[in-house]
Every structure is written in C-alpha cells, then in structure tokens.
Amino acid sequence: MAAACPLTLSTLFCLVPILMCLVDPTLGYKPVILVHGLFDSSANFVHLVEYINNTHPGTNISVIDLFDHKASLQPLWKQVMGFSEAIYPIMQNAGSDGVHLLCYSQGGLICRGLLETIPDHNVDTFISLSSPLMGQYGDTDYLRYLFPTYMKANLYRFCYTQIGQTWSICNFWNDPHHHDMYINSSDFLAPLNSERPEPNTTDWKKNFLRLRKMVLIGGPNDGVITPWESSHFGFYDENETVVEMQEQQVYQEDTFGLRTLDKRGAITVYSVPDVMHTMWHSNETVYKQCIEKWLT
Ligand SMILES: *[C@@H]1O[C@H](CO)[C@@H](O)[C@H](O)[C@H]1NC(C)=O
Ligand SMILES: *[C@@H]1O[C@H](CO)[C@@H](O)[C@H](O)[C@H]1NC(C)=O
Ligand SMILES: *[C@@H]1O[C@H](CO)[C@@H](O)[C@H](O)[C@H]1NC(C)=O
Ligand SMILES: *[C@@H]1O[C@H](CO)[C@@H](O)[C@H](O)[C@H]1NC(C)=O
Ligand SMILES: *[C@@H]1O[C@H](CO)[C@@H](O)[C@H](O)[C@H]1NC(C)=O
Ligand SMILES: *[C@@H]1O[C@H](CO)[C@@H](O)[C@H](O)[C@H]1NC(C)=O
Description:
With 296 residues, the chain is α/β, with parallel strands linked by helices.
C-alpha cells in the first residue's frame, strides 16, 4: 500500500486527525455533567441525554443522582459538598481536556457553588438552564405548596431566620424590600455573590474565573423563576423593576468575577420565549439552538 501511495508530509498531517478518530470516536467531545433542580431527579434528563447522544455520539454523560425530590430542599452548601464529592473524580478523569457542566434550575446555584469552591476544577463551559442565579422573589406553585401560610411579601419573616436557612429555597430567597436582612441572613446566595464579605471571597473569585465560558439560558414564559431575568443575572430593585446584569452591583463591583468574565467575552445569553419551566431540558429546539454547539 505504501508503495502505491507515497506519503508526503502534508498528506500525513491530513491523516492524523482521521487516524485519531478511528482510534477513539469520542475524541473531541468533553464529558458532560448534569445537575438537576428542585423536586427533580436524574430521571428528568432522559430527553436531554438522548439529544446529546444523537448529536454528539459517544459523549460520556454523567447524570448526578443526588438530593433527589424532597431531598433537594436541603441546604444548598450541603448539596454543594455532596455534588462536589461525586463530581470531583469525574473532573480528575477528564484531566486537562476538562468537562462541561450543565445545570438546571436550582442546580445552577449548586454549580455556581462548585465553581467557586473547587480550586482546581476544570470546567470548560458552564451552561445554566433557567436557574435563579440572582435569587427568587415570586409566588410560584412550589412556594404555595411548601409555605401555604406565607405570601411572597411575608416569606422573609421565615426565610431570613436560622431555621428558614435550612431550606434550600430560602437560601436564595431575595426579597428586594428587605435587602439588608437578605445580606445579613442569607447563608448561601449573599456569600456566593460576595455581597457579604467572606474570608474566602478572593479564592472563590479566582476559582470561578477558571471557567472558560458561561452560557445563560432563560425566558419570559418560564412561569417559575421570578423575575425570569434572574436566569440572566438580572433582578428586581427596591421597586420591583428589573435591573439587568450589567447594572447589578455585584457586576459593577465585580464581587465574584462576573464582570471579568463578561469583559473576556465569555458570557453568552439566550432569551427563549414559550418555554415553561419544566420543559427546558426536554425541548429539542432549545437544545439545538442554545446547547448543542457548546458541548464540543
Ligand atoms: C446512544 O446512542 C447509541 C446508538 O447510537 C445507543 O446504542 C446508546 O444506547 C445510546 N445511549 C444513550 C445513553 O442513550
Ligand atoms: C465515563 O466517565 C466516568 C466518570 O469519569 C468513568 O468512570 C467512566 O469510565 C467513563 N466511561 C467511559 C466509557 O469512558
Ligand atoms: C475557606 O478557606 C479555608 C482556608 O483557606 C479553607 O480551609 C476552607 O476549606 C475554605 N472553605 C471553602 C468553603 O472553600
Ligand atoms: C445587619 O447587620 C448589621 C451588623 O451586624 C446590623 O448593624 C444591622 O442592623 C443588620 N440589619 C438588619 C436589617 O438586620
Ligand atoms: C423607587 O421608587 C421611588 C418612588 O417613586 C423612588 O424615589 C426611588 O428612587 C425608586 N428607586 C429606584 C432604585 O429606582
Ligand atoms: C420549545 O421551544 C420553542 C422555542 O425555542 C417553543 O416555541 C416551543 O413552544 C417549545 N415547545 C415546548 C413543547 O415547550
């Protein structure tokens, strides 16, 4: 064969990628780690796993099966520690190639916790799928089920207590009319945002900025995340007017690295209409338009 087809240096170079593909057909697709949301479990990702498998065959997908259903109400730092233990070995296996982290709803906050607290993480792209990244302030079905006697305007009385902070949803309850109380009492979101000084703020920011790319997906018909712009790091001011990411204090003061990441051109934002909260991971159009191209 070699005699019939003399190899020049350039054809050799052309062949290398083809040969590498023959050796390992999955070469090039980084492992993908999926983290679920409130009252969910790994089962909610069956469609998403199928979509990824169809477009990127051979991708090693890890759906982390922890804190399922009611256990998802446990305090978020506890969940961050649990997910960290499960995910760290996957990161180590991936080595310098790194991994992609795709996190849905409350899971997006858990993933922010991972990104800030794992000093040698190798997350290439963090995809946040309709997550309350700047917190939640709204009456949703979840709230009515969990706290039937509280309206959103009164929930701070419960959430901003020590007992309240043992519930995940209170960990990211962000009442714009009681901002000082939020700053003083939030055990999770306020320190995560470095809105309250923490001894580890500098390290957390450095860890977060190991990220190469952040993709924020959300939309106006979500129906659960309130305001829905929280999925894009926007949030209410004291008058319940939505202030976008770039105007947020945490962005302008770059408290945890958001501004640095944005200035690097590392943030992509998708606003997708007509997707209900429970459909984000099961909508193939969303996958095709906002997720597929990042999972390389
Ligand atoms: C991925 O697709 C292959 C066929 O292309 C199939 O054999 C395999 O079971 C699929 N895996 C998952 C997790 O869906
Ligand atoms: C997929 O990733 C897991 C976790 O890193 C690893 O244990 C497993 O061996 C991998 N599977 C394949 C087929 O590479
Ligand atoms: C905070 O920093 C201290 C000292 O460096 C370290 O021991 C501790 O694990 C850190 N905590 C977190 C949650 O990162
Ligand atoms: C927040 O904490 C500071 C310092 O401990 C205190 O002076 C302030 O009154 C607290 N504010 C609220 C609303 O609890
Ligand atoms: C909220 O509304 C009040 C009354 O209209 C106004 O004085 C205040 O400046 C507004 N706050 C913000 C942050 O826009
Ligand atoms: C899927 O998402 C598209 C927007 O990209 C939307 O128009 C469509 O209604 C959604 N379908 C479902 C079943 O949610």
